[in-house]
Amino acid sequence: MRVTIAGVELRSPVIAASGTFGYGVEFEDILSLDKIGAFVTKGLSAEPMAGNPSPRIIETASGMMNAIGLQNVGVRAFIEEKLPKIRQIRGAVCIANVFGYTVEDCIEVVRALDQADGIAMYELNASCPNTSHGGMVFGTDGMMLYDLVARIRRETQRPIMVKLSPNVTNIGQMARVAQDAGADAVSLVNTFLALSIDIETRKPRIANTTGGLSGPAIKPIAVRMVRETSRAVAIPVVGLGGIVCAEDAVEFMLAGATAVQVGTASYADPRAVEVIATGVRSWCRSHDVERVRDLTGAMLSA
Ligand SMILES: Cc1cc2nc3c(=O)[nH]c(=O)nc-3n(C[C@H](O)[C@H](O)[C@H](O)COP(=O)(O)O)c2cc1C
């Protein structure tokens, strides 16, 4: 079941996605963190953030919309309060998700995290649709994305995975920009920019007006984007978007993903990431797949 991303060996290709798994420690009593590949923390910013006003999460057909707005404890509280606990959990692999309104903000987060042990990799969030600066603004402009990744690359020896926005016309091109700027891996997709209106009040159902759509509704688009990306770059691609069962994870791997992440499914079942990791193992056994990595890009043409 082992896969390697940017030199980091994971015992399973199934990873818990950012923003849906707290800081990992909250899940310690719910599932076995040493049975999943890794977990990604909630986006960490230089200063604590309160996020957007409520309502900021709603259910939609086969999915959900959120506009949390990067609520988080801030990088210093993460290092002082969360990371010591994470380091004590045997077998847990922590990927720190990095967010900033500006490149300088992101650099500040990475500099702080670089001083601390217990982080296997950074996931650089260049794709959050729910903030007015940073996030998706970086991930939808090639020049800004290059600048962000290249400057973070100069700051750290740790592997960098760049999380890409699906709100672009050519995701392969954006992935190439990230690769050329020094990214070790890319992850995709973040949420799709969306709008839902309450027809009785005629107001948006989310206080932020727009939000990011996730869950099974986005899966076929995400699978298509993972395929396009894996053909455009040489670095590993981590796929996500609507994975709720082992078969979904296998589909992403066939499309070209080296590993996958599970997000919204954890809201329906907090044990989903472990259940899916175990399920992928069983699926491989029942389909005579000796090594899970043999699935990557093994899709056949029509
Ligand atoms: C409530 C919520 C909060 C999220 N917060 C973050 C975040 O802080 N950083 C990030 O990179 N992605 C964040 N995401 C995006 C997810 O990690 C994931 O990319 C997206 O939801 C698609 O996968 P899914 O359909 O499996 O949820 C968030 C998603 C949700 C639903």
From TrEMBL:
One GO CC term, this protein: cytoplasm
Keyword entries, A-Z: Cytoplasm, Flavoprotein, FMN, Oxidoreductase, Pyrimidine biosynthesis
Record: residues binding FMN: S18, K42, G43, N97, N125, K163, V189, G215, G241, G242, G263, T264
Pfam families: DHO_dh
Catalysed reactions, as listed in the record: (S)-dihydroorotate + A = orotate + AH2
Keyword Secreted: no
Binding site for substrate: K42, N66, A67, I68, G69, L70, N125, N190, T191
Cofactor: how and how many bound: Binds 1 FMN per subunit.
Alphabetized SUPFAM superfamilies for the sequence: FMN-linked oxidoreductases
Segments traversing the membrane: none
GO MF annotations, alphabetized: dihydroorotate dehydrogenase activity
PANTHER family, per the entry: DIHYDROOROTATE DEHYDROGENASE (FUMARATE), DIHYDROOROTATE DEHYDROGENASE (QUINONE), MITOCHONDRIAL-RELATED
Family: Belongs to the dihydroorotate dehydrogenase family. Type 1 subfamily.
Protein name from the UniProt record: Dihydroorotate dehydrogenase
Species this chain originates from: Terriglobus albidus
